[in-house]
Amino acid sequence: MNDDVFDGVDDDAGDDGFDCDRLEEELRAAAAILDPVPAELCRIAVEAYALYDLDARIAELTFDSLVDAIPVRGVMDPPRMLTFRTGELTVDVEVTSEGLLGQVLPPQTARIEVLNGPQPAAPLTADDLGRFACDAPPAGPFALRLRTGAEVVVTEWLRA
To answer: How far apart are CA 143 and CA 116, in angstroms?
Structure first.
């Protein structure tokens, strides 16, 4: 076999004479030129990572009117009722075409963010009775992040 083919290949490249690090570098450079990652996707990935909160407790969905409720005859667009629970904390949410209404139980003040994909989180404040409202209905997947005096709670992600 002709050894001229392998001229210039790094002898420290490994048993098979192949420099994997150099190949990876060249493939990354080619991909960046031929098929670059869209800036919007990079921004969404960074924001998704920023949502990762080790101290947050996950509130499980325990009731969803789309699954658990009996349909009412004659009601064309019923609100979607959701209940999330974690430990002693419960969050009841009503999703309508006009927005969100909710309550944190036991009643307490809380700062609430509606996480809704690439859009910035909409900050809400629960009053002393735990009630909160948002005038904009979520579009697409959404979750809620609650910051009470003692903890951070994030609900499961759902489709609106």
So the answer is: 7
Please state, as a whole number, how many other Cβ atoms lie within 10 Å of the Cβ of residue 160. 13
Q: Do residues 146 and 112 lie in contact, with contact meaning Cβ atoms separated by under 8 Å?
A: yes
Residue 135: both structure tokens together: 């005038």
In this structure, the number of other CB atoms found within 10 A of the CB of residue 138 comes to 21
Q: Provide the 10 A C-beta neighbour count for residue 85.
A: 17
Q: Is 50 helix (H, G, I), strand (E, B) or coil?
A: helix
Q: CB of 80 within 8 A of CB of 97?
A: no
The pTM of the whole model exceeds 0.85 = no
Q: What six digits make up the tokens of 104? A: 């944190």
Spans of the chain below 70 pLDDT? 1-17, 46-55, 72, 74, 117-122
First to last CA, the chain: 64
The alpha-carbon radius of gyration of the chain (Å, integer) is 25
